[in-house]
Design a protein that fits this description.
By secondary structure, the protein is an alpha/beta fold. Helix content is 39%, strand content 15%. The chain has one domain. The N and C termini lie far apart (86 Å).
Length: 114
């Protein structure tokens, strides 16, 4: 009889836990691949993107330095954004989001010469 009560009590606790939703679900994973800017870059921004592209010695449409950090920090491929035909690599998620949200604003402060 005691085993039956113990079994019913355990079952009741399990039902209550399940009814409450159980453990929190896994957080959403980051999207795979680069973000894509919805903003159309100005002609001045396109010129600065091309100049920033040349800074590493190759013209491959990939800016490997973080635009949000005035091209002073190395960017990471996992924080990338497509702006027109260029791909930027940022040093952190918040920098990448800023570049993608408003490339004209970010590139307005950059002096990419070379």
């Amino acid at each position: 009889m005691n085993f039956l009560k113990l079994g019913l009590s355990t079952l009741a606790v399990l039902v209550l836990l399940t009814a409450c939703g159980g453990p929190d679900p896994k957080p959403a994973e980051e999207p795979a691949g680069p973000l894509v800017s919805k903003a159309k870059p100005s002609a001045a921004t396109l010129e600065k993107l091309a100049a920033a592209d040349r800074l590493d010695g190759t013209e491959d449409k990939v800016i490997s330095r973080c635009p949000s950090c005035s091209l002073m920090m190395d960017g990471k491929p996992e924080f990338s954004c497509k702006i027109g035909e260029f791909t930027t690599h940022s040093c952190a998620k918040h920098c990448n989001e800023a570049v993608c949200a408003d490339p004209d604003k970010v590139f307005a402060t950059i002096e990419a010469t070379k």
